[in-house]
């Protein structure tokens, strides 16, 4: 089954910017694009005249207007549009089986909004089995420089970061873009590193060479698979979120992994993804673990 890029639209400038970004990504990858809008009639328990047919027509208009704009600007893209009769989170997550990635709008410096409002964006990111790209709007256009690096954060072992590195390399290859792989590290508190890991660090010549080797080892299979992608290896002392954000100013995309778990106030996606979604100036791809 050919996968497709799925973009959630709701008529907001953020979601229209997401649809525009998704269309350009569909061109880069040679994939079809599906625009999705969620609508489900839910009568209100109020003494008001309620018009389900009118609301459905309004929902169809949102989808039609977005589709017309994308088709006009990107006639080469194979485009479909779908009205999903479900709640926003369930609707977009339900497209995951056929999606190469999901694309939503982001207001940035606050809750991810795009597909609809409130915490929906974070729920989609936390629950998705496919990568989710959050796109910020700048005057109705994606806040993305036309050129620049694909920036990716590498954490843990090669196995831990396989999904995020695979997505980043494939994206850089499709765009003909250079890739910068960042591994942040911090001085270990007492007993934080195991005796075995400290022995490996000593054998490598210290903590910095140890971290550099860890990044190089994680990148090696992806360099071999994507030999035409120029790669810069970047190891820096500091928290992962801070180091990635300090490098994201000229990036065309920031790719991070997800560490989803349930919290007392709902789904949590991990501190690095949370910081990137709120503060990065460029689109952010959040990749679930394999």
Automatic annotation (TrEMBL):
Coiled-coil region(s): none
Highest taxon in the source lineage: Bacteria
InterPro entries: Rossmann-like_a/b/a_fold (IPR014729), Universal_stress_UspA (IPR006015), UspA (IPR006016)
Domain UspA: 1-136, 150-288
Family that this chain belongs to: Belongs to the universal stress protein A family.
Name of the protein this chain belongs to: Universal stress protein
Organism of derivation: Streptomyces gulbargensis
């Amino acid at each position: 089954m050919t996968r497709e890029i799925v973009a959630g639209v709701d008529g907001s400038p953020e979601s229209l910017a997401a649809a525009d970004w998704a269309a350009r990504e569909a061109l880069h990858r040679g994939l079809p694009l599906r625009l999705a809008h969620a609508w489900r009639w839910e009568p209100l328990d109020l003494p008001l005249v309620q018009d389900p047919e009118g609301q459905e027509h309004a929902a169809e208009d949102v989808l039609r207007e977005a589709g017309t704009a994308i088709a006009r600007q990107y006639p080469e893209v194979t485009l479909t549009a779908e009205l999903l009769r479900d709640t926003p989170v369930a609707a977009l997550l339900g497209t995951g089986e056929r999606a190469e990635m999901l694309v939503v709008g982001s207001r940035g410096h606050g809750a991810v909004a795009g597909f609809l409002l409130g915490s929906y964006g974070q729920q989609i990111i936390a629950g998705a089995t496919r990568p989710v790209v959050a796109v910020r709007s700048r005057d109705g256009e994606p806040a993305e420089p036309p050129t620049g690096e694909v920036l990716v954060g590498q954490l843990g072992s090669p196995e831990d970061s396989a999904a995020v590195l695979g997505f980043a390399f494939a994206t850089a290859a499709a765009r003909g873009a250079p890739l910068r792989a960042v591994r942040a590290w911090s001085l270990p508190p007492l007993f934080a590193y195991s005796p075995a890991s400290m022995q490996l660090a000593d054998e490598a010549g210290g903590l910095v060479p140890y971290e550099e080797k860890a990044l190089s080892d994680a990148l090696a299979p992806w360099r071999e698979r994507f030999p035409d992608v120029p790669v810069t290896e970047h190891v820096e002392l500091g928290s992962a979120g801070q180091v990635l954000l300090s490098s994201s100013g000229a990036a065309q995309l920031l790719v991070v992994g997800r560490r989803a778990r349930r919290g007392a106030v709902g789904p949590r996606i991990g501190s690095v993804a949370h910081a990137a979604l709120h503060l990065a100036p460029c689109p952010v791809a959040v990749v679930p673990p394999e």
